[in-house]
Amino acid sequence: MNGEYSLGLHEVGDNSYAYLQPEGGWGYSNAGLIVGDGVSLLVDTLFDLKLTASMLDSMSVATRSAPISTVVNTHANGDHCYGNQLVADAEIIASSATAHEMLEVPPKMLAALNSAPGEVGELFRHFFGDFSFDGIELVPPTRTFDGRLDIEIGGRLVELIEVGPAHTQGDTIAYCADSQTLYTGDILFIGGTPIVWAGPLENWIAACDLMSELDIDVVVPGHGPLTDKAGVARVRDYLSFVLSEATLRHDAGMDAFDAAREIARDILGNANRSFAGWREFGRISVNVDTVYRSINAAHTSPNVIEQFRRMAEIELHPER
User: Fold this and answer.
1) What DSSP designation does 220 have?
2) C-alpha distances in Å from residue 143, one per residue of 4, 93, 170, 279
3) How confident is the model at residue 1 (pLDDT cuts 50, 70, 90)?
């Protein structure tokens, strides 16, 4: 699908909107707005208060007569929930797993990593230096669910479907059938490489199959431009490829990081692959490690600092 990919609010269906943040790299996430009769639902807030305030201001043309009464956080990553304090008067809904995981990475942790001295600070500023985490108060969900939850927003039905653990421990997609619009959170990255923090990859692949069965015209990914079922299929292809290739190397006894570097070289060296040109290809190191951990519960994953170091190393030195 060839929709406009520019910063700001875009109507993608009848009173259904996407808020897009090009180019969709680290921290530059998308959000959604579903406007009903007199009330609206917001799908996700953004990574810091400045970005969230700007988004809410752009949405005021639609929310002035239909204030935001409900917020859905699709998952616990800060670029989808750190702006919650600016909509704290609304009911905030997330899966139970998301609500629990949200407490594990508070904004103060990222603020400290961004301002850390030496190599650690340089590393995290490389990924998140554009954002300010000062003054953010984490506002957790006020309502949780497991599995599925149907909610009514001003006469419109929005179906919340939990598809995690996959990207994180508790991923949710939001489906608005009357406008054939799907908001996926980070179950879809378009133009950028998916990152499988939690896994298993089989769950994410199953989520792609579920999304492909829905009656959808427009898909709003967590990062990147608008897409459709073809975008879902491409993400599924990537995940299936990684699962297969990582499993082969695990079974052959290869180290997880060595396997990730080898698979990265394979992807970059094969222009015919649909995902060969995706950004953030260093995320393969996390994805392969997740496959190893899913196969073998005794596998020890590196800490988060080492995970980011490995991603940066693969992108800076893909030939190694």
Assistant:
1) E
2) 34, 5, 14, 35
3) low
Yes or no: say if 1 and 18 are a contact pair by the CB < 8 Å rule: no
Domains and CATH numbers, the chain: 8-229 (3.60.15.10)
Cα separation, 71 vs 58, whole angstroms: 17
Short-list 19, 6, 88, CA closest to 59: 19
User: Count of H helices and E strands in the chain?
Assistant: 9, 12
The DSSP 8-state label assigned to residue 141 in this structure reads -
Cβ atoms 299, 292 nearer than 8 A: yes
Q: Which of 3-12, 41-50, 147-156 has the lowest average pLDDT?
A: 3-12
The residues near 172 (Cβ < 8 Å, ≥ 6 apart) are 72, 73, 74, 75, 94, 95, 98, 160, 161, 162, 163, 164, 185
Enter the DSSP assignment of 66.
S
Confidence band for 62, pLDDT divided at 50, 70 and 90? very high
Residue located via tokens 């650690």: 120
DSSP states along 172-193? EEEEEGGGTEEE-GGG-BSSB-
Cα–Cα distance, 57 to 43 (Å, whole number): 15
| Statement: residue 192 has pLDDT above 90 | yes
- For CA atoms 180, 185, 191, 194, give the dihedral sign: negative
242: nearest Cα among 292, 168, 277? 292
Alpha helices per DSSP H over the chain: 49-63, 96-102, 107-114, 118-128, 201-213, 229-251, 256-268, 284-295, 304-316
